Amino acid sequence: MVQKRVVLTFPQDLIEQPIIYKLVKDHDLVLNILRAQVTPEEGKMVLELEGSSDNIKEGLKYLHEKKVKIEPLAKDIKLNDKECISCGACIAVCSTGALSLDTKTAKLNFDRDKCILCGCCIPACPLRLIEIEI
Amino acid sequence: MTKTYAQINEKIKKGKAVVVTAEEIIDLVKKKGAKKVSQEVDVVTTATFGPMCSSGALLNFGHSDPPIKIQKLWLNDVPAYAGLAAVDAYIGATELSETQGINYGGAHVIEDLISGKKVKLYATSLGTDCYPAKEIETSITLKSINQAVLFNPRNAYQNYAVAVNSSKKTLHTYMGILLPEFGNATFSSAGELSPLINDPEYRTIGIGTRIFLGGGVGYVAWEGTQHNPSQKRDKKTKIPVAPAGTLSLIGNLKDMNRDFLRAGIFEKYGVSLFVGIGIPIPILDEEMVVRTSISNKSVYTTILDYSVRKRKRPSLGKVSYAQLRSGYINIKGKKVPTASISSLYKARQIANILKRWIKDGKFFLQEPIERLSLRTKLRSLE
Fold it and tell me: Looking at domain A76-133, which CATH architecture does it have?
């Protein structure tokens, strides 16, 4: 089993089609929608796919054929830990538990694997030490 | 057995004082009992590092030539109060920049000064016979100015309430971002390590107490503003179950550093100053061991709903710091994630630095010249 995170852009004419349903059903994938946004112009989705590497490959091929734009999740949250005072204000708005205080040292921990890049922590940091990289 | 301040200071002088932090004493008492620990331990160090809005610096710039009686003053475009004599001024931590708004404030000016950065000074005056200059624009550094004193009217709150939000909208507060419908709960206290939690009835922390302040040495100047000792207290521990006592602190800003004094911005609220404070508690007798060995399990605080826009916010019950530190608390049957906005990590660093200073014979204890009031009540603005 492998995991892959991608950013999908759906052209307007695809928005009402059951693309994700077909992706799950025909390719035996476990999907986790991390973010989704529909605007009048397009639909955007940050998707985590889990399955065999062959199935993921086939699934992405299906999306490509449907004219869904696929981009790797290149964004990253950047935390300046050298300057961080471990106050914990960012943890208050982190819904996935990616940010936490180490139970022993009380130092701020950032678990990148749990981060869904929602960006809520950026304004929550009083020292302005968190940035999102595109 | 009882000890005096003089006896403890004598041991510090000889490098023989036994010093532990307010966290370390907890297990020590569990193992050995309060009586034995009272004989063995001389000092317990307590600490906190959190945003403390009622902070600021008293500056004396030295005189210009020709001299000026400064009446209006800006430091890096942040207004400072100059209505005292000619070149005295007070820069408050929460004052905002007139050009950068919420992104820069008095706390940042203080941080820039202790970082050795140049700060732009602009001032105006009506001009007098003795102070002819009407305007001055120059730059200052912490080194260049005559005096710089951190003088904080209200710090080191003895306990603080937990903030939650029952409304349907996100709230931006000095307690951080509060998510709707009890989406989170924030708190701000070092709990079992916090100074006034370890001396709930102000036996040893009073006017004149020597402390660690912002990386340097400071003193308790007075009771803090809004000092409220009449707050409801736990019968056994005597610890208030909501915000109570406060301290006004003073120290030489020139000796401080940005590891323990840091500007912060609270989104859509404003600027504040994170202040690092360490206070030693002398183990005069067994009672002080009992007081300092309390743990997060027995320290309670009140949950307040910040969506109620009133002076008196309704209480949603009480929780212990052990529960708050566990990551979740229960409110009305809902599992609510918790987050601290003061740094326990930094507080521990401070408690350990102060411990080292005392062990190394560099820091002596000062008996309070006056005790803080245990009786005054809080008045409101009507």
Answer: 2-Layer Sandwich (3.30)
- Spell out which residues of chain B touch residue A100, defining contact as CB-CB under 8 Å: 327
Per-residue pLDDT tens digits for A41-89: 788 888 989 999 999 999 999 999 999 999 887 667 899 999 999 999 9
Domain end position, chosen among B145, B164, B186 = B145
* B48 and B187 in a common domain: yes
Verify whether residue B53 is a known catalytic residue. no
Name the domain count of chain B: 2
Which one of B6, B130, B235, B236 is the catalytic residue?
Answer: B130
> Token pair for residue B350?
């401070």
Nearest to A89 among B262, B341, B344 (CB): B341
Q: For residues B299 and A8, give the distance between their C-alpha atoms in angstroms, rounded to a whole number.
A: 49
Identify which of B297, B337, B336, B246 has the alpha carbon closest to the alpha carbon of residue B48.
Answer: B246
Same domain (yes/no): B206, B335? yes
Do residue B345 and residue A93 have CB atoms under 8 angstroms apart? no
Q: Please name the fold of domain A2-72.
A: Alpha-Beta Plaits (3.30.70)
Q: Which residues of B touch A105 (CB under 8 A)?
A: 345
Q: Which two tokens stand for residue B5?
A: 């301040």
Same-domain pairing of B27 and B139? no
Domain layout of chain A by residue ranges = 2-72, 76-133
Does residue B236 belong to any structural domain of this protein?
yes
Record: contact A87-B50, CB cut-off 8 A: yes
Q: What is the DSSP letter of B248?
A: E
Tens-place pLDDT, residues B282-326: 999 999 999 999 999 999 999 999 999 999 999 999 999 999 999
Residues B276-304, buried b or exposed e (16+ Cβ, 10 A)?
bbbbbbbbbebebbbbbbbbbeebbbbbb
- The answer to whether the CB atoms of B184 and A124 lie below 8 A apart is no
CA B292, B294, B300, B306 dihedral sign is: positive
Do B348 and B224 fall within a single domain? yes
Rounded Cα–Cα distance for residues B108 and B311 (Å): 29
Alpha-carbon span B232 to B330, nearest angstrom: 22
- Judging contacts by C-beta atoms under 8 Å, the chain A residues touching residue B178 are 92
Report yes or no: A47 and A93 within 8 Å, Cβ to Cβ. Answer: no
- Asked if residue B67 belongs to a domain, the reply is yes
In this structure, the answer to whether residues B12 and B107 fall within a common structural domain is: no
